[in-house]
Amino acid sequence: MAISERKSIGLRRFMEKTPRSLELYKKTLDVMPGGATANIKFFSPYPIAMEKGRGSYLYDIDGNEYIDYLLSYGALILGHGHPDIIEAVHVQLEESGTYLFGAPHRLEMEMGEKVKQLYPSMERLRYTNSGTEATLLAIRLAYAYTGKNKIAKFEGHYHGGYDQVLVSVNPPVHEAGSERHPHPVAESKGVDPYHEKHTIILPFNDLDATYDILKKNQHDLAAVIIEPVQGGFIPATQSFMDGLKKMTEEMGILLIFDEVKTCFRMGLGGAQAYYQITPDLTTLGKAVGGGYPIGITGGRRDIMELSAPTASADVFDVSKSRHSSAKDVLFHSGTYNGHPAILAAGLATIQVLEREIWHIQDMAAKLKAGIAKLFSERGVGMQVLGLGSIFNIIITEQESISNYRDLQKADFALRRELDFLLLAEGIYTKPLNRYSISAAHGEKEISRTLEAFEGALGKLC
Taking the mean position of all CA atoms in its chain, how far away is CA 404? Predict the structure, then answer.
């Protein structure tokens, strides 16, 4: 039977297996707008409500078991409930006797030293509570250091849900201008139009066009912020990264690596180790906390020292005799920055990865190769795209995918139907989303996943 005649099978089977998720979703509509507390957690017709997780598995409120490849969008690099993380958090709570100090503590230094070893470009660093907060701080530092008031980002790249960067993440192509000179497109209601003028959009993996745009705006641009691997799965070419580093240096524009998605996924040193590029500023998140909320901003000492509270007065200084004002220091604060339990979890995560990251990379390689083989055997054009333990499945006849525009030519309808069939077979990721592998995924899970793919593809083509 042709693919077009099979379109509703996956969705029907999904809904048959998840009636309690639908029931809970309907009730939740009376509590939260759209039935979700974060837009990213929703998918149509309704998201699956989970009850528990263990290792590489999730269990929903209908009792269905899933091999989890979403892993909280890559954050759970050790899987659910890893014993080393549980033990580290338990020990921290038992020894300190509190959840939170609200003051400096030993783990801030210990975690910072370990991160600096893995990311030598981060000569000084600060903790935040999310990757979004980390990129926000990096941009503020860039503004302060350069005295300029614009930034540049790449079309298709996501850096958080705030106005400055919530531009041209997934824009309608017909609104986005030419491929070589993209127009800024706001991606949310309520975004101040100011940011469409002060956030310059660049074409990813097109060095000549990027140079032209940067050169035109170099006197206004504080920084270029980039996901070295777009969305975690479309990698920059080495020549593009080398060229971008060179041109930003020549033009006096800071280079910010947003490694929230690539942190530990391409190796312990992230994308900058892979590309051998030293950015001016780096932001980390997701996997660095092993499932706990954390972000880290770090970079060159001279830039990061702008946030030092000893430099002058800040917004919390109520002294009447001070000789400087709050505007003389870059303000960054947060009650939960450097939360002791979270840093204990982060250190435990790194310690496990130092022993087991090879296993995660090996399982990812086997799964990617197996999926590609199954598609090839059925004559369906596709690419398993990504480096390390994070990847995506792009159903397309294109030979290469190097940017957002290329991605838009993929067969999303077929991919969505495949995803619902896989959900019905106990393979979990949010439809159309990427896959991540954890330390808890083993040969058994990879084999079961490939069997589910084979069965799903048999129903579709």
Answer: 16
Report pLDDT digits (tens) over 287-314: 999 999 999 999 999 999 999 987 555 6
Please confirm, yes or no, whether 145 is among the known catalytic residues: no
Please pick, among 261, 286, 314, 435, the residue that the annotation labels catalytic.
286
**What is the enclosing helix (H) or strand (E) of 68?**
strand 65-68
Give the model confidence (pLDDT) of 152-176 as tens digits: 999 999 999 999 999 999 999 999 9
Known catalytic membership, residue 328: no
The encoded tokens of residue 277 equal 């590029």
**Residue 184 · residue 200 · CB < 8 Å:** yes
Domains of the chain (ranges plus CATH)?
3-81+357-460 (3.90.1150.10), 101-338 (3.40.640.10)
Helix (H) or strand (E) holding 375: helix 340-377
φ/ψ (deg, to 5) at 307:
-95, 0
- Euclidean distance between CA atoms 152 and 168, whole angstroms: 11
Q: Which of 69, 158, 404, 428 is catalytic?
A: 158
Annotated catalytic residue within 60, 68, 163, 258: 258
Q: How far apart are CA 72 and CA 62, in angstroms?
A: 20
Q: In the annotation, is 258 catalytic? A: yes
pTM of the model: 0.95
